[in-house]
């Protein structure tokens, strides 16, 4: 099996044209994912800094929309959701004996996220 990264020119010379194109497409998808993460982070920063006007027109007063970090991102709740899904996944495993491999894959990939 070849290395995923092409560190040497010999690696490029040894691969087929199809392999080269797949690696190029994979790199482009990876870069799009990186950009997505950066834009998502920028959006989250904007939301974290959101303020609400609590004052009047004559006496404006702004407060942060999120008082605590937990209001913005509930870490414990996210962990509990994963734990609950894992616990309920055991019962899915038992009933999946009658499903085809494609149906099992569809079932596993259709989780919310």
Short description:
This protein is mostly helical and 113 residues long.
Kindly describe this structure:
- The chain is mainly alpha-helical and 113 residues long.
- The chain has 2 domains: 1-67, no CATH class; 74-113.
- Helix content is 64%, strand content 5%.
- It has 5 helices and 2 strands.
- Strands 1-2 form a two-stranded antiparallel sheet.
- The chain is flat and about 70 Å long.
- The protein starts with 8 loop residues before the first helix and ends with a helix.
- The relative contact order is 0.05.
Number of domains as seen in the coordinates: 2
Q: Give a count of the beta strands, DSSP E runs of length 2 or more.
A: 2
Ends: how far apart?
A: 32 Å
Order of helices and strands: HHEEHHH
Share of β-strand residues: 5-15%
Give helix % range: 55-70%
Region (Disordered): 92-113
Keywords:
113 residues, mainly alpha, two-stranded antiparallel ribbon, 5 helices, 2 strands
Task: Lay out the secondary structure.
Elements lengths: L8 H6 L2 H32 L2 E3 L8 E3 L4 H4 L2 H21 L5 H9 L4
Antiparallel strand pairs: 1-2
């Amino acid at each position: 099996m070849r290395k995923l990264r092409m560190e040497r020119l010999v690696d490029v010379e040894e691969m087929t044209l199809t392999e080269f194109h797949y690696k190029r497409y994979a790199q482009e998808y990876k870069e799009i994912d990186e950009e997505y993460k950066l834009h998502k982070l920028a959006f989250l920063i904007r939301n974290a800094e959101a303020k609400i006007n609590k004052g009047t027109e004559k006496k404006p007063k702004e407060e942060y929309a999120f008082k605590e970090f937990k209001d913005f991102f509930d870490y414990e709740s996210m962990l509990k959701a994963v734990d609950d899904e894992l616990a309920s996944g055991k019962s899915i495993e038992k009933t999946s004996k009658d499903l085809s491999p494609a149906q099992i894959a569809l079932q596993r990939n259709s989780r919310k996220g």
